[in-house]
Amino acid sequence: MVSTSTTPPTTEEHPMGQIHLELFATLDLVGQGPGGPEEDPSDGFAFGGWQAPLMDDVAGAQVQASYEGTDALLLGRRTYDIFAAYWPHQSDPFAELFNAVPKYVASRGTPDLSWAGSTQLGADLPAAIREVRERHEVVKVVGSLGLVQTLLGEKLFDELHLWLHPLMLGQGRKVFADGAVPTNLRLLEPPVAAPTGSVLLRYGLVEGTPGTGDMTAG
Q: In the chain, where do the E strands start and end?
C-alpha cells in the first residue's frame, strides 16, 4: 500500500556543538608559555615551562578527562605550529586523539597544514568558528591566547576550564587581556585541587551581563 499522507517525515535536529576553552594561568593570570622554555619566548618572557613542576597525577587525570568527547581542535597559529611539530611523532592517548580529529587553525598567514586533518579558517573568524561549532560536538581550544581573546570578546564559547597555579610571575601575556566583554559564568562542578596547590575551575557561559548592587544597603 502506498501512503497518501502529506506529512513530511520527521528528522532529528542536529544539536549545536560546544566550544571549550582550556586555560592555564598563574595567580596573576599569566598564561604565556606554560608548557616549555621554547613554547613562547616572545617579549623576553623568561619563565617558559612554569607549569611543568606543578603537574601531578591528580592534575594529569583531570586534564585527560577534560578531553573526553572532543572531536575537533581549534588553535591559534603559534599553538598549532608547536602541536604540529610534536604530536604526529608521539604515541600516547593524547597523540591518538590530536592526530585523529580535525584541526582548525586561526591565522592571517600561511601556516603549513601538512598535519593530517588541518584546515585554515577564513578571514571572518567569528563566522568561521560558528560553522565549526555546528559541525562538531566538542571543539577544544588549547593555549592560543590571541585566539582566546577573540572568543572572549565575541562570547563565542560554551565552557571555560581554568587551571590556577600557585605562583605569580609579574610578567607575560595574560589569559584575560584588555578587551574581554562583561560576561556571566556559572560554576559547573565543585573545584578540584591538586596536591601541588593548583586548582581547576570549570565554568559555563550564562546569558546577560554582570549585575551590580550595594553592599552597604540595609
A: 18-26, 72-76, 103-106, 118-120, 138-142, 159-165, 184-187, 192-193, 199-206
